[in-house]
């Protein structure tokens, strides 16, 4: 087991970092009505009393408010990052100052340190896991299977992590229950579409200082995240091109008015590329060879495998930092291809990135919190494997948000409920 130290042992001025991180957290919390409501409930009822929660997440201000909520609910929490470039050291330090929280997240660590930090979280012997990408679940199953019997369950935040979990479950290798938080309506309709769409384009614009208007924006993948990027780019007067392998999604993109073509054809005309698939080798050598000078390449999928950077580096005769967060690769013929955030999550890993909008993550983290509560209260009801989030939990979070916004909605009458639940009513 790793003895990788907490964030406090990595910083020269811990107190200043803690103060700065706390200010970020307090600012975010002003715009998180769902977590504020749940904080009141969790602090009063202590539903997580005695639990140990191990987390691998993007450690920034919004996530930190979820972590603090879980601690207020009575849990001991240990957390590290799920991406080496998405951690905010000051926020990590602010979390680590809490007596019930230990944070091992440090920005910019190498692969070895990244996995050592995950092992340090696991050393707390979590009874619940909260993951973003499934690295912690994988590490527990591969290296510390003796802990599985004492783990009540887990929750997974992101598309890529759920894909990995379902593959693990299909092979019969997932040994405790995990909620697929990513697959709830609250997550897909708001976090994936609006969150990914807005934050990815915002960070591309801030990193490059280019406009989307009249540009050919190539979106790889037309799942919920890809739909969000395409929708927001079109809203900024871009010409959107979609590359997709699933015929129904490709047809949907076509019917929405976007151009649809193979990536190698899109590569010839694209100005800005955004990958959103969660799969590997989406933009490859044959695409780099036909791209125009000045093309901008970014990734909004979880891992840095969608753009084949090894192939791009082999093709390049020169590499240099064109501006902060932009690595230029110069081809033999003089063309320059520009990769943002080292091919990692552009909305979280670029130097100025802040991730999804606060209000969007308030909803997603609200679902995470009630899922953790559900595992503690009713964990015995769930067998090992991937589980959909109970619909009433997703609706609970939506209702809290509507109340906070002052929005009232209709309710079904008894007669309407009976009608919708009956098969005997004819014409």
UniProtKB/TrEMBL annotation:
* Pathway(s) annotated for this protein in UniProt: Amino-acid biosynthesis; L-homocysteine biosynthesis; L-homocysteine from S-adenosyl-L-homocysteine: step 1/1
The protein's required cofactor(s) are namely:
NAD(+)
Q: What is its main location?
A: cytoplasm
Specify whether NAD is a keyword of the entry: yes
Q: Which InterPro entries match?
A: Adenosylhomocyst_ase-like_sf, Adenosylhomocysteinase-like, Ado_hCys_hydrolase_NAD-bd, NAD(P)-bd_dom_sf, S-Ado-L-homoCys_hydrolase_CS
Is Cytoplasm among the key words of this record? yes
Residues annotated for NAD(+) binding in this entry: 158-160, 192, 221-228, 244, 279, 300-302, 347, 356
Q: Which GO terms describe its molecular function?
A: adenosylhomocysteinase activity
Localization in the cell: Cytoplasm
Q: Which PROSITE patterns match?
A: ADOHCYASE_1
Which top EC class applies here? hydrolase
The UniProt annotation places substrate binding at 132, 157, 187, 191
Catalytic activity, reaction form:
S-adenosyl-L-homocysteine + H2O = L-homocysteine + adenosine
Q: Name one Pfam family in it.
A: AdoHcyase
Biological process according to GO: L-homocysteine biosynthetic process; one-carbon metabolic process; S-adenosylmethionine cycle
Q: Name one GO cellular component term.
A: cytosol
Gene3D superfamilies in UniProt: Adenosylhomocysteinase-like, NAD(P)-binding Rossmann-like Domain
Write down how the cofactor binds this protein. Answer: Binds 1 NAD(+) per subunit.
Q: Which UniProt keywords apply?
A: Cytoplasm, Hydrolase, NAD, One-carbon metabolism
Q: Where is the S-adenosyl-L-homocysteine hydrolase NAD binding domain?
A: 192-353
The record's annotation in SMART domains points to: AdoHcyase, AdoHcyase_NAD
Domain of life, per UniProt, equals Archaea
Task performed by this protein? May play a key role in the regulation of the intracellular concentration of adenosylhomocysteine.
Query: What family is reported?
Result: Belongs to the adenosylhomocysteinase family.
Name of the featured protein: Adenosylhomocysteinase
* Species in which this protein is naturally found: Halogeometricum borinquense
The gene behind this protein is ahcY
